[in-house]
UniProtKB/TrEMBL annotation:
Species in which this protein is naturally found: Glycine max
Alphabetized GO MF terms: protein serine/threonine phosphatase activity
Alphabetical list of PANTHER family matching this protein: PROTEIN PHOSPHATASE
Protein name: PPM-type phosphatase domain-containing protein
The organism's taxonomic lineage, starting at the top: Eukaryota, Viridiplantae, Streptophyta, Embryophyta, Tracheophyta
Domain (PPM-type phosphatase) ranges: 1-158
Length: 159
């Protein structure tokens, strides 16, 4: 890694639906995937995975966001050169079988999750039919709740 690239990094969450039945989710850092089944939120990814096992720590002081080694406000897993020994680029991967009770999945960055719980996000968009409108509604709600972090969101509706 070039020293001129700075200290920035990234987080990511992605999902693929195989044969309309098997949802595979991969996550690095604190972007998150949440599935809605019969109106109930089910988190499919794990935030801040493996930092403690690699010798780091996540502090959580009142009024602040969780910080890796008391410094970095997210568990960016591919980047942040100075904290690389406590961060991993190995994603957390989970597989969820999609059945008739699955309504939609939300893939979003921490800017949404810092101001909304999983269930609040599900409740916010459950009655919106269009996936794009659902994602827009969630990002608008995060802004209304004064999120100061990046807010990226994708919603996938199941038929």
């Amino acid at each position: 890694m070039s020293g001129g690239l700075g200290r920035g990094g990234s987080t990511a969450v992605t999902a693929i639906l195989v044969n309309c039945h098997e949802l595979i989710v991969a996550n690095i850092g604190d972007s998150r995937a949440v599935l809605c089944k019969k109106g109930v939120a089910k988190q499919l990814s794990v935030d801040h995975e493996d930092i403690k096992n690699r010798g780091g720590f996540v502090s959580n002081f009142p009024g602040d966001v969780p910080r890796v080694d008391g410094r970095l406000a997210v568990s960016r897993a591919f980047g942040d050169k100075s904290l690389k020994k406590h961060l991993s680029s190995e994603p957390f991967v989970t597989v969820e079988i999609i059945e008739d009770d699955a309504e939609f999945v939300i893939l979003a960055s921490d800017g949404l999750w810092k101001v909304m719980s999983n269930q609040e996000a599900v409740n916010c968009i459950r009655n919106i039919k269009d996936a794009r409108s659902s994602a827009k509604r969630l990002t608008e709600e995060a802004v209304n709740r004064k999120s100061t972090d990046d807010i990226s969101c994708i919603v996938v509706k199941f038929q």
